[in-house]
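Task: complex structure prediction.
Instruction: return structure tokens for all chains below.
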Amino acid sequence: MSIAADSISCVELCRAVAACKEKGCRFVTITCVGADSAGAELLYHFDRELALSHLRLTVSGDEVPSISGIYAAAFLVENEIQDQFGLVFTGLAPDYRRTLFLDGQESPPPFRRDRGPDQGE
Amino acid sequence: MAGTVLPFGPQHPVLPEPLHLNLTIEDEIVVAAMPAFGYVHRGLEKLADIRDFRQMIQVVERVCGICSMIHALTYCQGLEELLGVEPPRRARFLRVIWSELHRLHSHLLWLGLFADAMGFESLFMQLWKIRERIMDINEATAGNRVILSVNVIGGVRRDLDAGQTGWLLTELAEVEKGINALGRTILSDYTVQQRTRGKGVIGGRQALEFGCVGPMLRASGVSQDIRLLGYAAYGELDFAPVVEQDGDCHARCRVRFAELGQSIDLIRQALAKLPAGDLSVPVKGRPEGETVVRAEQPRGECLYYIKANGGRFLERLRIRTPTFANIPALTAMLPGLELADVPVVLLSIDPCISCTER
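Output:
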């Protein structure tokens, strides 16, 4: 069983999210499914009159375009993902620079399977 | 001159939970508000790496004390979907009853704290006195006042007997009487209106754009309630979302107050239709696949993303709690307000930092 989600690339992300906003969708959240040295997978969830729709973004590196310019509410979850997975959202405002939950010291992203604290780095 | 940055919380006399905002103020007027977190963050999602999918029920119950049962309900519904299990009908009705008891005690707790934030201590005490009856019902029916550990994958583990059902209805009648007696004070008192009307206004369109949920969204004129999806036994009960149009603190107060009556009505309906039968079905195997599941908590929509690969441990568990969705709107609601109004507006979103810093 898997979620019915439209697969998109980084280039298409902002346009697809803007289209969701034009349709009157409520931004629900972003889920970072996982991130390692090979890349990351993120799910963007939207709601319109109780029907959920999802966008699935697969990136090969650590950089992801921010959607906080389209949905301001996304700044919180994007900062959370930066803290937890070590991804970098380009254009994120406000950007806490990995201090939303963390104390500002250089620390391994706790949810990263390739360079998280479990790997002893 | 640049404004003064005032740290509001995490320890503050008016805050029931360690919410932290950095407020930029000029002449006692808020010009910017930035949330800050990390004070009590626990990393519960990460525990899915070392607790198997059944043990995680006890973990998610502790995401939030106030909505413990609904967290477990949402999680169990997700696992039931992945395992292809349908809980018995009686279990689905019992889940509704405990969910609405949670909503009742959460809204009464909030109304009391809201009255306290305005300095209305006698109202605070009266509301919490009524809430004690709900806590007693929780203890008698589920074994605990706060953490109701009643959900299992495939149903529930506790039942209501005929004696408890009759007693519950009597207690609910007393709760209803108490609530109605306080209604006029909560909704029409001069002081309450002066402190809440026109404060922290957010319109329907803006609330949707900021991703608001629950009473926040409904107080801004958007008729959205996740219970309308019909999960558990909500599909067999008659109710409509409580909606107000003003989008201010008073409207949010009116929505939660009206939802008290709605919850009592839903419990009565569920008790009247409570079918006989099993409490749970046996569950075999391990979950595989991914799913997104939602439920309506007292503070609004809660979303669980669950991904499993057939092993003992989940591959990913993500919990989006309602307060996490409502906090971004504060950055738009607070600027322009006097500093003295900040506590009331903050509390009007019913912030749960235990949820947010899960």
